[in-house]
Each structure stands twice: as C-alpha cells, then as structure tokens.
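Obj: model holo form, ligand = flavin mononucleotide.
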Amino acid sequence: MELKYLDKLWEKGIRFLGTRYAILCGAMTWVSESRLVSAVSNHGCFGVLAGGNLPVEMLEKEIEATQALTSQPFGVNLITIAPNFEKHVELVSQKRLSHVIFAGAIPPDKAIAQVKASGAKVICFASTLALAKKMIKAGADALIIEGNEAGGHIGPVSTTVLAQEILLHIQKVPVFVAGGIGTGEMIAQYLLMGAAGCQLGTRFAAAEESIAHPQFKKKLIDSDARDAQQTYQFDPFLPVVPVRAIVNKATKRFNQLQLNLLRELEEGKIDRKSAQMKLEEFWVGALRSAVIDGDVENGSVMAGQSVAFVKEVQPVREIIRELVEGAERKLASLWEQG
Ligand SMILES: Cc1cc2nc3c(=O)[nH]c(=O)nc-3n(C[C@H](O)[C@H](O)[C@H](O)COP(=O)(O)O)c2cc1C
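Output (holo structure tokens):
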C-alpha cells in the first residue's frame, strides 16, 4: 500500500525502528511473547518482548524463539526494578539485539552504556520534560511518552498533556506516544504534533496471535473505556504505583490488601519496603491468573481506556491494516480538503 502522507510524516520513526510502519506493540507482561511479537514485526510494525520478571533462561529462549519466527526488527523491554534486571541487561547485550527498551524506574547509566556498547539502540520512557532531557543526555536514542490512559502501570498525567509538555519540545531524538490510542485517526494526530510514531498495547492484547486466554480477550471486548480504572493510593506512607485494569474483584482485593498492609505498618508488623513489594507481587500474580488461566474476576485484566476500541478478536494483520488505513485516511482528508 502506498502511503502518500504517512511515509513522510513518520519517516523519522520508521528509519529508527527499521520497519514499514512506525507503530509499536508495547511490551505486555505475560502477553508479549514470541508469537505476538513476531506477528507484529512480520506485518510491518515493531513488536516488543516483555522481559518482566522472567528468569534469564526463559527470556533467552523467548528471544531465540522470536528470532526464529521473524527476520524483522523487534525490541526487548526490561523492567529496571525486576529482580533479574542486571542479568537481563547482560543477556540482551550478548544477544546483539537491535533495540532495547528500559521501563520501570530511571535506568542506571551503566545499563544504558552496556546495551549501547552491544550495538543496540536504547529507548527510554520519559514522564516529564526534565526527565526526557536527562534520558537523552544519558544516551537514550529515542523516547516513549506514555499517558495515564494506558493499560498496566501508569503515571499521573494524560497522553494529551504529555504530548504538549514533552513532544513539542524534543526534536533531538524520535519520540513515540503511547496510552489510550485505539485508532489510526489518533495516530495521525500525534504524528502531526511531531511524534515519530505511536505505541499501542491493549488492542494487540486481544489479537488472534496473542496467547492471552479467550476469557481475557472476551473481557476486553465486553468492556468500555469507563471500566478501565486506575488504582488509588490510600496513604502516601505506602506509595502505590497506579495500575489501570478492568474493575473486578481483584480491584477490591487490592484495595483490601493495601488497607491490611497499612494497618500492619502502623502496628510495626512489616517494614515499608516489604509492604511495597507485596503490592507489586500482587499484580504480577494477578495478571498471570487473568492472562494465562483466564480468571478475569479474581485476576487482573490490565487494559487501557483504549479498550473502548477493542470490538472483536482480530488477526494482527487486520489490526495493523485498520490503524494504517485510518491514519492515512485522516491525513488525506486534512490535505485534500482544499
Ligand atoms: C496487560 C498489559 C501489560 C503491560 N505490561 C507492560 C510491561 O511489562 N512493560 C511496559 O513497559 N509496559 C507494559 N504495559 C504498557 C504497554 O506496553 C503499552 O505502553 C500500553 O498498553 C499503551 O496503552 P494502551 O493500552 O492504551 O494502548 C502493559 C500494558 C498492558 C495492557
């Protein structure tokens, strides 16, 4: 398909990613494994493997399985606060990958340097303009800005505000926009604001090639934007990184766990670090129950407000076609209006 408008507008993004289209399928823990990642990359977008909390040997197997399924570029997402983070960095450096994405907290300079020395391009998340500049100084070759509308662990600020705060002021490296994006028309808008491309998660979680349980996909289809709600922090003494997921019994269980931990903290029965760890462990286990076992009531169905645009289980090829056609159509309508 000839892309009269998109090819020019997202040129920086496709050159950086080495893909036909500047659309990334963001890493999703338990969901983004070799099949989904390779399908996304084989159909012209950029797949990202989720390193998450995987044991090193499993991540190595996943990287090799993806390489066997696609010759196209893909990335590996590493969580800086994961227990195996340093080993993951060592592994991806040995594997000579094309792109590595750091998520979680601010990545250590040493990890960025090590990955870059292996020849890979480094992508970092930035939640403020100051952090975006800091990450570029530290060696980031591209940035992702992810708004509060996104699924999974989120920041406090919406995608539209981040786009104005960060996107408009960073020209040095490609910036990809994520969070709440479900249509090609929206992708076109962010490209017009200077984005190099966009990253989506939720729509791809419901793809035919996604290993997520059929019940997980059904829950996404049945849900509305208003069902994808974020968790709240009851007391700043026990900091909670908000998570956006479909409201269910797990939401209630998480709130109860928070209250119990606050009480235990007050009574001196637990320290802050262990309490926070328990909260994080809750999500890892709950996400697995929903994605792998299909327990969408007691497990965590992490999803962005973009769940509004998940209407059916579709092959990756079809999702990508819809996004690209929608973006190109939007741009054509703007230019050809006269
Ligand atoms: C189920 C799920 C799991 C996720 N896990 C991760 C993760 O492990 N690492 C990460 O950087 N982002 C993670 N994300 C965020 C996605 O990579 C992506 O940025 C986000 O889904 C974009 O917003 P959208 O869902 O509205 O498209 C996750 C999102 C979902 C829905």
